[in-house]
Specification:
This protein is an alpha+beta fold and 307 residues long. The chain has 2 domains: 162 residues, Ribosomal Protein S5, domain 2 (2-Layer Sandwich); 134 residues, Alpha-Beta Plaits (2-Layer Sandwich). Strands 1, 2, 3, 4, 5, 6 and 7 form a 7-stranded mixed β-sheet that branches. Strands 9-10-8-11 form a 4-stranded antiparallel β-sheet. A hairpin with a 2-residue loop joins β3 and β4. It is globular and about 55 Å long. It starts with a strand and ends with a strand. Bound molecules: (R)-mevalonate (MEV). (R)-mevalonate (MEV) binds next to α4 and α5.
Length: 307
């Protein structure tokens, strides 16, 4: 076995389609240049440190359970390792920190053990995501494993591979703000399921409309029409509100961003708290959107995604 290993995973932004994607509809997401870096080496004392934009802590609970499962998939024991993960995205805020962490750790474990292939990395990450998120669609893990903008549809039945189509998108200037403490993805997903069971006649068409918005958003991006892509983000936000996953701070952040010149703004991830993403037309409007959000003390991130 080698002395030490490093692995990387990406954070994500969902541009269209969260929640409906769990119910089989199309979504569009991108893997971010920021994410997680995991470092592993055989150690006498086992430690697992997580550093993230808000501080540093020793992993416990769910993280430890998921991490143990990941390293065991590669024939390693967590208790015999010194492990650390550096996260550049905020934890549990809708930017895919758990999937980025799981991918980074699985890649590091694969390198350290010299065992397994990319398929085993994907399986280990899927099991970890189930620990974190319950009934997840797999979109976060797909973004964490790959870069770029892509269309995603979950497998038709549990265990079936998702349909992932890389997309040609124009340059995208995204601004993300964390506007509230995050809610648990598993809880939010369960809440939407419960709503769909109570009001199928209203919620099934809402999922379908979100799927249509994702398809139209994909077409707008592929045609290089960022104006339309932004407008469709606004429509998606309205439909997410109908699912009950927006909150006052998210609504306020979307309105502030649009007033500051964003082409579109919506929550990203499971909602109930967490992050808002805005599509900015140019560097000057990115500055104005940040200014509006930072005046509310919301931490901001800025991404320029190459075409
Ligand atoms: C979470 O980032 C996105 C959700 O659609 C859940 C999932 O797809 O697993 C809310």
């Amino acid at each position: 076995m080698i002395d030490a290993a490093e692995g990387r995973g990406r954070g994500k932004v969902i541009l269209y389609g969260e929640h409906a994607v769990v119910h089989g509809f199309e979504a569009v997401a991108c893997g971010l240049p920021l994410g997680a870096v995991a470092r592993l080496r055989p150690g006498k004392t086992s430690t697992f440190i997580i550093e993230h934009p808000g501080g540093r802590f020793e992993a416990d609970g769910q993280v430890l359970k998921a991490a143990r499962g990941i390293v065991e998939s590669f024939g390693l024991e967590l208790e015999a390792l010194e492990s650390s993960v550096h996260l550049a995205v905020p934890v549990g805020a809708g930017m895919g920190s758990s999937a980025a962490l799981a991918v980074a750790l699985a890649r590091a474990a694969r390198e350290l053990s010299g065992q397994g292939d990319e398929a085993r990395v994907e399986e280990a990450v899927a099991r970890a995501e189930a620990v974190f998120h319950g009934q997840a669609s797999g979109i976060d893990q797909s973004a964490a494993l790959r870069g770029g903008v892509f269309a995603f549809r979950r497998g038709a039945h549990p265990g079936a591979p998702p349909q992932i189509e890389p997309m040609q998108a124009p340059a995208l200037r995204l601004v993300v703000a964390q506007v509230a403490p995050s809610a648990s993805t598993a809880t939010m997903v369960r809440g939407v399921h419960a709503l769909a069971r109570r009001y199928p006649a209203a919620i099934t068409p809402t999922f379908e409309a979100i799927g249509q918005v994702a398809r139209a958003g994909r077409a707008a991006l592929e045609a290089g029409d960022v104006q339309e892509a932004g407008e469709l983000m606004n429509v998606n936000q309205g439909l997410l509100s109908a699912l009950g996953v927006s909150i006052a701070a998210i609504d306020a952040a979307c309105h502030l961003a649009r007033q500051a010149g964003a082409l579109g703004a919506k929550l990203t991830g499971a909602g109930g708290g967490g992050c808002v993403v805005a599509l900015s037309p140019d560097a000057e409007h990115t500055r104005l959107i940040r200014q509006a959000w930072e005046a509310r003390d919301w931490p901001c991130f800025e991404f320029y995604l190459e075409p």
